[in-house]
Write a structure and sequence with these properties.
The complex is a heterotetramer of chains A (401), B (184), C (203) and D (388). Chain A is 44% helix and 14% strand. By secondary structure, chain A is of the alpha+beta class. Chain A starts with a strand and ends with a helix. With 184 residues, chain B is α+β, with helices and mostly antiparallel strands. Chain B has a domain of 124 residues: 2-Layer Sandwich (Alpha-Beta Plaits). Chain C folds into two domains: 120 residues, NADH:ubiquinone oxidoreductase Nqo5 subunit (Beta Polymerase, domain 2, 2-Layer Sandwich), CATH 3.30.460.80; 58 residues, no CATH class. In chain C, 28% of the residues lie in helices and 22% in strands. Chain C is built from four helices and nine strands. In chain C, the strands form three sheets. Chain C has a five-stranded mixed beta sheet with strand order 1-2-5-4-3. In chain C, strands 6-7 form a two-stranded parallel sheet. In chain C, β4 and β5 form a beta hairpin. Chain C starts with a helix and ends in a 25-residue tail after the last helix. In chain D, β1 and β2 form a beta hairpin. The chains are: A alpha+beta (401), B alpha+beta (184), C alpha/beta (203), D mainly alpha (388). Chains in contact: A-B, A-C, A-D, B-C, B-D. At the A-B interface, α2, α5 and α6 of A face α1 of B.
Amino acid sequence: MSATHPGSGGYIVPTRDVASEELVLNMGPQHPATHGVLRVAVKTDGEVVLDCEPMVGNIHRCKEKIAENVTYVQFMPYTDRLDYLAAMNNEECYARAAEKLLGLKLPERIEYLRVIFAEAGRISSHLMSIGTYGLDVGAITPFLYCFREREEANHLFEKISGGRMLYHYMRIGGVARDPDDAWIQRLLQFLDQVEEKMDEYNTLMTWNKLFQERTMNIGVLSREKALAFGITGPALRASGIDWDCRRDDPYGIYDRFKWEVPVADGKHGTLGDCWNRHYIRALEMKQSISIVRQAIDKMPKANPDELPPPESPHKPFLAKGVPRSLQAPKGAEVYVRSENPRGELAFYMVSDGGKSPYRVKVRGPSFCNIALLPEVTRGYLLSDLVAIIGSIDIVLGEVDR
Amino acid sequence: MSYFKELWDGIRTTAQGLRLTGGYLTKKGVYTIQYPEETLPIDKVTHRGIHEYDVDRCISCENCAKACPVDCIYIESAPDEKGKPSKGKAAIMTRFDIDYSKCLFCGLCVPPCPSECIQLGERYSLPGHTRDDMVVHFHEGGYPIQEKTEHAKSMIAEFRTENLYEKKRKERADRGIPTLRPAE
Amino acid sequence: MTVTEIGALLKERFGEKILEVVDDERHGHVRVAADAWVAVATFLRDDPRTRMEMCHDVTAVDWIEHFDVVVHLYSLAKKHKVALKTKTPSRDDATCPSLTGVWPAADWHERETWDLMGVRFTGHPDLRRILLPEDWEGHPLRKDEGNPLEYHGIPGIAAIRGAEERLREEELAKKKQRAGGHPGPHPAVGSHPTDGVTPGVKP
Amino acid sequence: MREGLTNLLSGLPQWLQDIALPVLFGLIPAVIIVLGVVTPVGLVGIWGERRIAGKIQDRVGPDRVGISLGPIKSRLFGLGQSVADGVKLLGKEDFIPPGGLGLMFLCAPLVVFAGALALFAALPFGPALWAADPNLGIFYLLSVGALEVLGVLMAGWSSNNKWSLLGAMREVAQVISYEIPMAIAALCPVLLAGSMKMSSIVADQTNGLDLWGLHIAAPEATALGWNLFAAFPFNIIAFVVFYICALAALKRAPFDLPECESELVAGFLTEYSGMRWSLFFLGEYAAMWAMSGIATVLWLGGWTGPLHGFLAGVDVGPIPGGVFFGTLAFVVKTTILFLLMIQIRWTLPRLRLDQVMSLCYKYLIPAAMLCMLASGAAALLASGGAGS
């Protein structure tokens, strides 16, 4: 007597005549594969996952409450700590949200710098997620290779912003510092290095048969489910949905660049499986490299009329006319989203005319993506659960906020 | 047929992986550095480490404390003749504490300073056993500041010509405020 | 489609249930009466002209006398967006129909809104706390919610602030004493040196 | 020396002599050899693994702990790291999980280590350099190698921890399955040599190459006589099958499911700490080396081969050249296989349990059976060709 579990990944769950019990495993919050302090309560039958429930909130840091008590400028360093692996992208989104709320207009050079840094941040973040995904399925070496490249990105960001992980580089109405030519040259070298070394990750992971066995046809997320659960980012594109809000709902100056949005075509594995989610990230890195190169080519020099050089190295590089004390009009509200490495981050900000926002809501992509974990893991093995969590690529700083 | 193809794929990709790692085994040199002997270069201008602060140049305007998102800067100055906390060039700092268990190292305290007496420095190591070890009492000397800008340099020259450094040090000694900063 | 067009479409279909259409450059939204909340959402999802497949975000804003529940919708096929807003009846009766039946994505967002804002979503299958512990009292993002003094022996920020300040002043006084300056404890410290510095003690 | 001792003991009663002589001349040297080999192999193996992992991953690895004895100061490439770790682990709390089966928990690492230790007893390091050379050598080695399962199951069961239990169950399922192709693959050289005795299998590999009834006289130095090339190409496949099975039986990556850190925290090791934990590791590395040694004996000619073939006549001090270079050849070949195990670990991702099983039953067992048949046929042809 045996039956396939409803919604299972094809594993046969025997229905026994003998009395047996389900095993409830408490995975996390200090489990090595939960990417932080996620706790997943897993109900298993042997090694087959019958059901699971992610329990979040272990590092809830009251970010939204804090935002109501600090000024617009002061909230910027806190946004670094949302998705701490892609701090540049968070800052970029928050800066745009605040600028839209305050009605500021940006000079060209700042717009280009935003794009360069956001895409470099995406490369840095994807390096991390690809590396840790290798760790999740047991390949330890690609993790260190990815870290080597990420280290270069850290050096670059440290050189320009002073921080290695939490940059606080974007400022409302500008950036912290204007990069010089030597820095740009180094950035180009970094891009070359990543492009060259990506073959190594692909050899050790993407095209490796064992890795494919572990990840292909696992955790299949169908188109319909992906849409219904509000999945965004690489996970959405891995399900075959051609959507990237940088291209389809362009913000900043993304409409000026030519690049392809990588979408899974189901040639390898199943549409929406773990392997596709991993591979989309690898392809996205290539596209980001291309965007950064285009932006560097096109970036204009700073026009001192609208973008005066800062008086001292301590002062941020701001557009002319950005007031020192920022105040938004009463009742103004914005909802600004940006394509983060993990999905669409959005800030919903409401102003009551004061110096600090009246309400800030952070829509973290990881928060929405992790909600579907029970849907995609039912019927797979315990090992697959780890692979699925890794492929969704969550950052708990953003889930718990 | 797929049986043999999968077998072949497995062998082929495994061999490719082994060739890659084997290449690293025979490669000369490594990417990482040996930490205590070698350290990574730190950019003097941009690095955001533990603050550097000049207690004598501080005018006690509290701009830095107001700009701080986490309220980790505590400022007090000695009262002047009128009994109010002294401000301006003559201010005598009785307290300038930064609580590094709270500090975000965001650097927002640096731009508003009119006398450029506070900036983020190169130090990054502040080990301690208690939370109180994380509080640095800058008014007792703290870390000497490195002048990065022309403005700061000119201010120091001004202070020297007016002999303000000497005056303030003497006054602090009179008031019994400990000064750990070595005499120049 | 712009927000105005979507608003017109909705007005045509739902009449006076659509209270307001704001096509602001910053934030275009449609204000809907609470009793038509689910119907409007379902219409927006299913109508071939709108096809709002993605529920991006559900949240609430505390306007003291009532809460605004805000939903941000996107259509990937049509590449347009709209926000829906509705009022809760009052501050005490902060309820709103749940959208989990329309978009499963609303599940966790609504749980979060309930957790932090205290808006009760009727019809939600599993309305539990999500970010805060199960036994937490109150909803911290409400404007009248203060800082708790203690939670399971962990002192709240209000309690810590007092203790920290005293600790620091005490230490300063000690340093002054060592330097031979002002002798005696700081007036704020009190007679006993450890008064009020034990964590968890309310000041 | 032996005679002197025998004379010394001759005054004792006969029954005591009967016990004392075998113990003195058999057991004690054997234990010294085995312990003197196993522990250094374990310690150096752990250090080697970490250094190689470092090199593969573009970093340094442990290179600090060396010797500092007065004027002699050397980092020795960090060789002291394992010793330093051992000292640290000795100082750790010996934690016994509450609610677990205490005695079983304490014994489990000993069982695992004893299994690894026993492997060395029948491993021929060089010509006449072995603790024992039983007639059923291979049979003994394969049986003793499976002892480890018992220890791991004990560890997992007695830990009172769900992760440990899952790890132990995986280990049992995996290792017992892999015993089958491993034994079948090991039968190929046995068929070719017509003996299960380790020394006979080695001796058989100096006789030149039998290629499907065609006998090619090959001097020892060419290494053509190795079983690896016998019944070409089936023994190469058998060797690979055996090697993969050895990886699985030793729960090395990519088969390290019982202790895979990203899924089961640390599997059956979750609750272990201190010296007991390190015993598991010492046992694992010793067993790795021993398994490589078995593969060397079965397919790579044991102590024979180029090195031994060329230099057998050159004595090194008091040691006869045959013994010295034979042992050296064995150690070199075994260590190369050992290093390959390490390199594989740092290259491949981990398999899933059902894939481990399907690899065993779908690929390895058929391949091993085919190789056994081919080897049997080759042996038959060879004997027919020889006219015996």
